[in-house]
Write a structure and sequence with these properties.
25 strands, single chain, 2 helices, five-stranded antiparallel sheet
Length: 409
């Protein structure tokens, strides 16, 4: 759905050396591109300040906010870089695993371990190459040092590995109770999402040491993979835990229409491709496997977009009553070339606003800083890291019990 177009027609076959030189030339051009200037964008709640922290990133996929105010960014071709507070890009860090960097594959999510301050450990998801041009989603963890990673350990591999360059997912989220969730895609083989004997199209739940929790819903069930938490997912590229409730939320790409927001629960079937609001790209009609928008024993989406924005990274914006965006869910939109803000009342969605429409750029990831500022990545050959300062809240909109205390006179 969101594969990057080739830079030359497939029919044009360049020698490998020329291809490599062309790639280097394109990368050099990209890194010398002019950054987006700082600007103000009008939104429904007031002015949004947009600053560019760094550019010259080749299809950046995820950003992790480090405690010292710097950033860790993954580039889909297989590089991991630090970005200093002043925007300087580091050379590629050592120790990154080999990736299958074709189509939608490559180095994907990067997140900090819940105990990062103590163990300096990071987690990465990526498309891992296999034999005979196969690949599958994998997750590895390693301590982060000044020059790169050490003691890399793979904690998860999607099996079996399959041919094809699409639908790897993948995001990583922690529930705060000793578990890690890993989203992924069905590798563009639709009915595998319904097959419990394989890992494609599944949301996986593991302990932080990589072991399988004994209370996973399919542990002990013959013919089912015990790693599975939920199934029937197409291609999930958004995953976040609501800090207010601890509930996991997940977003995924539909086909032509039908992007979804779900709240996965243990053992539940989220329907793809048997139920879907999307259509076959080729025919504009439902896929032959699709029975409709609902079916017994399958969970309908919590929220659906009839026109696909191509959802990617996702983050909750909560705990900042001084900002108009408080109590929101933020989602990157690739085809929609914007940042989507869903206004929340508890878990109820009140409405939607799209921002960054003045750029416009494909938004691949979004993270929220402790100070209430928002960080987003643009997906391009010359991708950028942007910092957003949301509008200040009107004082009248801040409930008295939310207002920050002031010093006594």
């Amino acid at each position: 759905m969101i594969g990057t177009p080739a830079s030359v027609p497939e029919a044009v076959m360049l020698p490998r050396v020329l291809q490599a030189l062309l790639c280097l030339a394109l990368a050099a051009c990209a890194r010398s591109a002019t950054p987006i200037p700082a600007r103000i964008e009008a939104t429904a709640d007031g002015p949004l300040r947009i600053e560019t922290l760094a550019c010259g990133l080749e299809h950046p996929w995820a950003v992790a906010l480090l405690p010292d105010g710097t950033f860790l960014v993954s580039e889909r071709p297989g590089r991991l870089r630090r970005i200093a507070a002043d925007g300087r890009l580091s050379p590629p860090l050592a120790g990154v695993p080999a990736v299958f960097a074709e189509g939608q594959g490559g180095l994907l999510d990067v997140v900090l371990d819940p105990q990062f301050a103590r163990n300096r450990r990071i987690w990465m998801s990526y498309a891992e190459p296999g034999p005979e041009a196969t690949a599958g989603t994998a997750v590895a963890t390693a301590p982060l040092g000044d020059a790169g990673l050490s003691e890399l350990r793979v904690v998860y591999r999607q099996l079996p590995k399959l041919e094809g360059p699409n639908h790897f997912g993948s995001r990583i989220a922690f529930d705060g109770r000793g578990h890690v969730f890993i989203s992924q895609g069905e590798r563009n083989q639709k009915m595998l999402a319904q097959d419990l004997s394989v890992l494609q199209g599944k949301l996986v739940r593991l302990n932080l040491d990589g072991r399988i929790p004994p209370d996973n819903p399919f542990v002990g069930r013959p013919g089912a993979r015990p790693e599975i938490f939920s199934y029937g997912h197409r291609n999930s590229q958004g995953l976040a835990v609501d800090p207010r409730t601890g509930r996991l939320w997940e977003s995924e790409h539909g086909p032509r229409g039908g992007d979804e927001l779900n709240r996965p629960e243990a053992g539940r079937n989220y329907g793809w491709p048997v139920i879907s609001d999307g259509m076959d790209y080729a025919t504009g009609r439902p896929y032959p496997e699709t029975r409709g928008r609902a079916a017994p024993g399958m969970e309908a989406p919590y929220h659906v977009w009839p026109i696909s924005p191509a959802l990617s990274g996702m983050a909750f914006y909560v705990g900042h009553p001084e900002r108009a965006w408080n109590e929101s869910l933020l989602l990157g939109a690739l085809a929609g070339q914007s940042l989507i803000r869903l206004r929340l009342d508890g878990e109820r969605i009140l409405g939607e606003e799209r921002v960054l429409t003045s750029l416009p750029r494909r938004i691949r990831d979004v993270r929220v800083g402790a100070d209430g500022r928002v960080y987003v990545l643009t997906d391009a050959a010359d991708g950028c890291l942007l910092r957003l300062t949301p509008p200040a809240a009107d004082a009248a909109r801040i409930a008295p019990d939310q207002a920050r205390p002031t010093a006594s006179p």
